[in-house]
Amino acid sequence: MVDPADKKRLAELGKRIDALKGTEVSKPRAGKNFSQASQAWRMIVELVVGIAIGTGIGFGLDALFGTSPWFLVPFVILGFAAGVNVMLGTARELQDDQANRMGGAQEDEGD
Q1: Between residues 32 and 94, which one has the greater pLDDT?
Q2: How far does the chain reach from its first CA to its final CA, in angstroms?
Q3: Where are the domains of the chain?
Q4: Is the full-model pTM beyond 0.90?
């Protein structure tokens, strides 16, 4: 059977749980609300992937045609330019999201 001391401890635990249920626990937000660090990593990965794809294409074409750096150099530069272009698009997207959030907050304050 259940010891009376255990019943008392169980009741106290129940009260503590009920008290904690009333407080709001912060949960990770789903959707497009990411932290600034994750957005920075996203932009870094976009740049590195652009360079890697350009390097791979250039190296592959050089291996295929037997030309040493003639395809590698321009495709690395093109990969870098593509990566920067994608990063700028991401930065514009983040700026638009921030402006939309700030615009919504200003509308709420004006009401």
Answers
A1: 94
A2: 61
A3: 36-111
A4: no
Q: What is the pLDDT of residue 65?
A: 94
The two tokens of residue 107 are 């509308």
pLDDT 10s digits, 21-32: 876 655 555 555
Distance of CA 44 to the CA centre of its chain: 11
- Say whether pLDDT at 108 is over 60: no
Q: How far apart are CA 63 and CA 85, in angstroms?
A: 28
Q: What is the DSSP letter of 29?
A: P
Q: Which of 50, 78, 77, 75 is nearest to 64 (CA)?
A: 75
HEC string of 70-110? CCHHHHHHHHHHHHHHHHHHHHHHHHHHHHHHHHHHHHHHH
CA separation for the pair 41, 82 (Å, rounded): 17
Count other C-beta atoms under 10 Å from residue 51's C-beta.
20
